[in-house]
Amino acid sequence: TGDSSNDITPVRWFRINPLRCPDASAVMKELEKKFPQRVESWEGIVPGSIYHDEFIPYLFGIHPQDKITSHELYKQGRIIIQDRASCFPAHILNPTLEDKIIDACSAPGNKTTHVASYMFGNGLVDDVRIFAFEKDPERAKVLQKMIKVAGCSKQISVNVGDFTKLATPSKFPDVTGFIVDPSCSGSGIFGRKYIDSLNRQKKTQDIVDNGVPDEQEEMAEKENGNLQERLSKLSSFQFQVVKHAMSFPKAKRIVYSTCSIHAEENERVALDLLLDEKVKQWGWKIAKRESVIPQWPRRGFVSEFQEIFRDKTASECQEMADGCIRALPREDGGIGFFAICFERDI
Ligand code: SAM
């Protein structure tokens, strides 16, 4: 993420990084100088104004035209640009200094460094407490850089390789929590990145989202077939990554997220996990709404749960859907997103 005139995001979101500024109030004062007008909702943001987010602490929204990347606060890593919905996973995981966390799919490191801000916001420690995995060596370099800018190189180890092979429960017997944010279709992303991803997807998503003229129906059918095939490959990969995280003996909380709007990559991955014999044996359940940003109004699709769990009551299905969070692209002030938290008593 960064300032880009092609990016048509409704809001530019950024958060104060406590690891680089123990005195958040001093940063707030600087922000007040730059953005003198405070607005009460993100819909009210105009150039020069600022919105203090009501869901994520120390997260702010400004007008996309206001260039924040040239500001000293940004250059010094004291503020970090990150979409609001992308801040949900670390907030839901809510780790403390007692925890050891694995971020299974980390680059470029937005969520990794956000997790660090929850763990070390009140003071850095001298040992590694977060283990970040990234398969792509080039992206791992970006991750490394972001961790350095955020000021938590000592507390995070970067492991380059496939999380499902490199991270074994015997090597990490005491990990308590996971962020699992694997590759997805990116269908919730718009703006320049969305257009790039459309090109990569041969416009399949565009066809699905925007409808197609009659004469293109045949082509659309073919493209739609491609999309379905792609979603099914992605969802079985996503399932494997989360299931692997669930196999760690001391893990108590796992937050799974995507920037996809498709149920195939979201609720249905969760459903497949809940139906898996091993996952049942390990005791994993969907966390209750009260620990998953309860005030956020848009929750998971209840129909997905009702369709599969025919023996469960409507309220049981609602409870599972309530353990999920959804954000719609643009309509909710940023990218389209999905997050769910699994937890168990051990
Ligand atoms: N969590 C990141 C953030 O907030 O900045 C974004 C993660 S991005 C959606 C998914 C990342 O997972 C990509 O960088 C991809 O290279 C990496 N990845 C894909 N498969 C992986 C695997 N098996 N093990 C580790 N990383 C993987």
UniProtKB/TrEMBL annotation:
Name of the molecule in the record: SAM-dependent MTase RsmB/NOP-type domain-containing protein
Active site annotation, chain numbering: C259 (nucleophile)
Lineage of source species: Eukaryota, Fungi, Dikarya, Ascomycota, Saccharomycotina
Keyword Transcription: no
Signal peptide (residue range): none
Keyword Transferase: yes
Gene Ontology process terms (BP): rRNA base methylation
Highest taxon, organism lineage: Eukaryota
A Gene Ontology term for the protein's cellular component: nucleolus
Ligand binding (S-adenosyl-L-methionine): C105, S106, A107, P108, G109, N110, K111, E134, D162, D181
GO terms of molecular function: RNA binding; rRNA (cytosine-C5-)-methyltransferase activity
UniProt KW keywords: Methyltransferase, RNA-binding, S-adenosyl-L-methionine, Transferase
Family in the record: Belongs to the class I-like SAM-binding methyltransferase superfamily. RsmB/NOP family.
Residue range from the parent sequence: 143 to 488 of 488
Domain SAM-dependent MTase RsmB/NOP-type: residue ranges: 2-345
